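New to this. Help decode the following:
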Amino acid sequence: MYRWISAGVLLLGLLLGGSVLGGLSGSVPQSTAQDLPLTPAAGPVGPDTVMAGVYVTNIQSVDRTTNSFDADFYVWLRWSNPDIDPTTGFEIMNVYESWALTQTPVYEKPKPQPDGSRVWLVRYQGSFNSPLSLSDYPFEKQTLKIVIEDADDNVTRIVYEPDADPITLDPNITLAGYNFAQPRIKFDTNTYGSSFGDVGTTAEDRTYTRITVEMPVSSPAVSGIVKIVMPIIIVLIASGLGLIIPATYVDSKVNVPITALLALVAMHFVIATSLPEVSYLLMVDVVYLLAYATVTAMLAGAVRGAWVLKSRGEDAAMALERRFLAVTSTIFIVAVAAVFIFYLA
C-alpha cells in the first residue's frame, strides 16, 4: 500500500515539474543566428592627408649654361595623425648642387595647432635644376620649377594636398632681366618606371605623392627690342643708305654694305658668345641670318648698279638700286614678322 502511494506522489511531482519547466522555456525567446548583432567588417584604411604650401622669398639668379637657378623659399607641412611623421621622407627632387643646399627648420619640432593638427615649417636655400629654352631669345619665357616628393611613403600611406594659399611669391621679389608672372603649384603623383631591383613591387608601390612649384618668368620686351632688334635695324638702314648715294660713287656704294655686313657679324658674335651652345636655332640667329641676306642683296644691288651705270647711264642705275632697296627691305620686314609669329605665337 505504501509502495503505491509513494509511486503516485513521485508521478505527480514529475508532472508538476515538467509543466513549470515548460512554462519557463516558453517565456524565454530562443536566440537565433539572425537575432545576434553583426560586427561590421573593417574597410580599407586610406592614406593620410598632408596639407602643404610654399612661400618663395627670393630668386637670386638664373644660369642658362647649367639650366639652374638660385632660390630662397619656405615650405610647410600640416597633418593631423600623430602616428605619422611626413618630414622624414620630405625631399627636394631637382637640387642642382646637393652639397650647397641649406635646410633651416623654423621650429625645432612640429608645432601643435588649435585644430589638433601639427605644422612643420622649413626654409630652403640653394640651386635647383630647371630645363631652360632659349629658342625665343631675346624674348625669353621660362618656367622655373621646384619639385618636392615624399621619398619614403608611397600614395597608399601619404598624399599631399594644397593648404590655404599654397603658393605665394614675396611682393618685393625681383630678378634682373626677368619679369614674374602668376606662380602655379601642382599636386599630383609620380610613378617610377623601374622597380629598382625589388621584384615584388607593383606600380602602386612605386607611386609617390609630388608637389611641383612653377614660377613663370619672361624677359622684358622693351629690353629685347632696344638691345637686339634696334641695332640690327640701324645697321640695315645704314646699308640701305648706300644704295641712294649717287651712282657715280661706286666705291662708296659698295663699301657701305660691306661695312654693315662686318658690323652684323661682330654683333652676332657677341650675342652668341654670351649664350650657351644649344642644338637648335634661336630666334635671334634667324633674324641675323635674314639681316645677312638683306645686306648681301643690297651689296648685289650696288654691284649691279655699277654695271648699269657703265652701260645705260646714271639714271637707270639709280632706278635699279632703288628697286633693290625697296624689294629687299620689304622682304626683310615680312620675313622678320613671320619669324616673330612663329617663335612667339
The domain at 222-344 is CATH 1.20.58.390 (Methane Monooxygenase Hydroxylase; Chain G, domain 1).
